[in-house]
Design brief:
Blueprint: H1 10-36, H2 40-60
Helix pairs in contact: 1-2
């Protein structure tokens, strides 16, 4: 319903925490890549974390 406010629940909090972790991970992996060069395993790990975050957000919707 447009204009209605959705209540905050524990699931929303865990999704937000996972999203924050994913964004923080992106910053760390990018900084590592710039400073020390690329590492494929770090990027692979970040992609997996991102996919898990998207899956969590979709299942909570």
């Amino acid at each position: 319903m447009p204009g209605s406010m959705r209540g905050s629940s524990k699931a929303d909090g865990s999704t937000r925490a996972m999203a924050a972790l994913t964004v923080g991970g992106l910053v760390v992996v990018t900084a590592y890549t710039v400073a020390l060069g690329g590492n494929g395993w770090l990027w692979f790990g970040w992609v997996v974390l991102g996919l898990l975050t998207v899956a969590l957000a979709v299942t909570q919707s």
